[in-house]
Design a protein that fits this description.
Layout lengths: L2 H16 L5 E2 L9 H7 L4 E2 L6 H6 L6 E6 L2 H4 L3 H8 L8 E5 L17 H18 L3 E6 L8 H8 L3 E2 L1 H10 L31 H5 L10 H13 L1
Parallel strand pairs: 1-2, 3-4, 3-5, 5-6
């Protein structure tokens, strides 16, 4: 992390605080590298990676039961072993953890190139990868999907394997659940429900023009036809 990136990262955390967010996460599993600095800036819960769930998933099973960790590229995750042990208190070098990369799944190479992933094309390959991993490690009792590009396939893996699958979305649900109103017990209606109004934002709005030029995935022009079609479907539903 360069000094410039660190400065902007700190500003981003502070901006999120100013918006009264309840928790902060990241859009890439490798943002675990920034977990420590984020925690130093804010007291808001920080879970930069789906890997933050690993301690909870681990304690749910006995020592001889295993966990499969699916990642975009197993080679790039290997150097994170010490970091995961430091931040999560879990040693992924233990024989009960199996790191399986999806770098050879047809179509998933788009992740490495910073391109949009064709999820329909990729899903069969990811599911096959999960099934092969389970066949290789039959004592596995759960999957943890480290990469934030993998949650689109979580349900398919659950369906095919019958095992629980933890990903970036289940991580968000876990932490945000600690803030939500429980309608069955305790106080009633103490917490205002979300009004359903999303703040207006287009991809890249927070960036300066020179920063937008440096983006790998460029902001795309708004497709009026698609928006009109969505509104039409909403009106008829």
């Amino acid at each position: 992390m360069t000094d410039e990136v660190e400065k902007e990262f700190i500003e981003a955390i502070q901006w999120l605080e100013s918006q009264n967010v309840s928790a902060i996460t990241g859009d890439c599993g490798f943002m675990m590298y920034f977990q420590e600095i984020a925690r130093e800036i804010t007291h808001i819960p920080v879970f930069m990676s789906a890997l933050c769930q690993l301690p909870a998933v681990t304690c749910a099973y006995s020592a001889n039961e295993q966990i499969i960790i699916l990642t975009a590229d197993s080679k790039t995750l290997e150097p994170m072993r010490d970091l995961i042990r430091l931040e999560c208190g879990v040693d992924t070098q233990d024989q009960r953890y199996h790191i399986v990369g999806c770098e050879d799944v047809d179509g998933f190479e788009a992740v490495a190139f910073g391109e949009k992933v064709d999820t329909k094309k990729v899903e069969p390959g990811v599911v096959k990868k999960a099934m092969e991993a389970l066949e290789m490690y039959p004592d596995s009792r759960a999957f943890l999907l480290e990469c934030t590009e993998l949650p689109p396939y979580s349900d398919a893996i659950r369906f095919k394997t019958g095992l629980p699958v933890f990903d970036a979305i289940t991580g968000c649900n876990f932490f945000i659940g600690g803030f939500q109103n429980d309608v069955k017990f305790g106080l009633e209606n103490w917490q205002c429900e979300w009004d359903g109004t999303q703040d207006e934002y287009d991809f890249g709005d927070n960036l300066a023009d020179d920063e937008k030029e440096a983006l790998i995935n460029k902001p795309e022009p708004i497709n009026i036809e698609i928006i009109e079609k969505i509104e039409e479907l909403s009106d008829t539903s």
